[in-house]
TrEMBL record:
<protein>
    <submittedName>
        <fullName>Chorismate mutase</fullName>
        <ecNumber>5.4.99.5</ecNumber>
    </submittedName>
</protein>
<dbReference type="InterPro" id="IPR036979">
    <property type="entry name" value="CM_dom_sf"/>
</dbReference>
<dbReference type="InterPro" id="IPR010958">
    <property type="entry name" value="Chorismate_mutase_highGC-bac"/>
</dbReference>
<dbReference type="GO" id="GO:0046417">
    <property type="term" value="P:chorismate metabolic process"/>
</dbReference>
<dbReference type="GO" id="GO:0004106">
    <property type="term" value="F:chorismate mutase activity"/>
</dbReference>
<dbReference type="InterPro" id="IPR002701">
    <property type="entry name" value="CM_II_prokaryot"/>
</dbReference>
<dbReference type="Pfam" id="PF01817">
    <property type="entry name" value="CM_2"/>
</dbReference>
<keyword id="KW-0413">Isomerase</keyword>
<dbReference type="InterPro" id="IPR036263">
    <property type="entry name" value="Chorismate_II_sf"/>
</dbReference>
<feature type="domain" description="Chorismate mutase">
    <location>
        <begin position="10"/>
        <end position="91"/>
    </location>
</feature>
Length: 91
């Protein structure tokens, strides 16, 4: 991960504009990754159902919730729940 330091010669407006542009770029990447995750999750679900399994694997979802909580704290759990809902639908 690259970290940047503020250019001390830039105006606050320019610094904010640059930072917002970077945020927009990051958001585009995050959205793309979520869409990719949704597609991979669909393959897992379809394969599980085709082989006689259930659509949702709760112990796996608990692992995912724990990973996000450990990395991001309590808000990470909410983020993981949203991701799971996007990827598998409501249960």
């Amino acid at each position: 991960m690259t970290t940047t330091t503020a250019d001390t010669t830039a105006t606050p407006e320019a610094t904010i504009a640059d930072a917002r542009e970077r945020i927009d770029t990051l958001d585009d990447r995050i959205i793309g990754l979520i869409q990719e995750r949704m597609a991979v999750s669909a393959v897992v679900q379809q394969t599980r159902i085709a082989s006689g399994g259930r659509r949702v694997h709760l112990s796996r979802e608990m692992e995912i919730l724990g990973r996000y909580r450990d990395a991001l704290g309590k808000p990470g759990t909410g983020l993981a729940m949203t991701l799971l809902e996007l990827c598998r639908g409501r249960i």
